[in-house]
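Hi everyone, sorry if this is the wrong subforum. Our group has a chain we'd like a structural model of before ordering constructs, and none of us has done structure prediction before. Sequence below.
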Amino acid sequence: MKLVITYYTDRFSILRSIWKMRDSQPQTNARSDCVTQADLGGRIVVLDLEEMEIENERRVRTPFGVTTDGSRIFVATGADQWTARADGSLIRVYNMSLEQIGSIDNKLFNDIHNITYHVGKDQRPEIVVTSTGIDTVLAVGLDGVTTFTWGAIDHGYNTTSLGAQRFLRDNADHRYCNYPTPSHTTHVNTAFQQGNRVYATLCKQGRIIRIHRDTGRADVIIEGLNYPHSFLPVNDRQFIVCDTTYVGSGYSKERYGRVLIYDTSFNPVITIEDDFCWVQHAFPAELHGAPVFIIADSNNSRLVFYGLDGRKIGECRYNPEWRISSFVPL
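Answer:
Right subforum, don't worry. Here is the predicted structure as tokens:
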């Protein structure tokens, strides 16, 4: 089994200094995250899970979400002209050797956090996208044409955490706009489609929603989470969610976050708690022929492996200068 992993920076010390400067500024909707002004690097890595060795890697500007159709790898990244365009405003297409063979572009792309592959109507492939910068979930064909949009701002989530009303300009090309996190109303993070329903995480509300693609109606199916990031299907009976900033008994500034497994009625059936610090992503895979859950423990710079019963099996550490975003089995 192999994983393709995105590290949105491989110069984390630079990003950490940017965050420190940002956090010294007043909390306003106009506060800049300063990301596009710095060369943060970034890389895509193919990891051999059996040998725990890097098999291949590719340097690219700020790669975030990643998905695959089995013969191609799709990665949301910054554009080559990164000082002019927003991060997460392009989807690059690679072959299995990490050679770029194409790209997918759309003016609704801004600060894409995650992408998932989906075969839509008439067996046409789509990429389901969280355009986090504009609080929008969309689907695009491989030609970049929009096939579905759901904007949180248009569905009752129009107030930022600072109490301001958010508006987006009609017909704007959002690829060339900078929308700092305080201006987001939901910070929508992960989305995928099953049947005719799209599931998405609303980080700021601590919710998972299910969107009816035909009508746009969104039902809250899970709430009470703490800044959830990834929410993905394990199989046809279970879902896995990263409760990223959950704080339990005995937790601290250096220990927080957990992973929950839900059944199809969205009841938690397994809870995985450990000495995590910012659980970024979790996904099912195989390790030495056995099914496992792989959890990205971001601030501790490691992937951690658990059996299906929630018991820890092992871990794989990586360079602390690499900040993980996402991964998917190949």
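For your construct planning: Helices lie at 12-23. Residues 31-35 have pLDDT under 50 and may be disordered.
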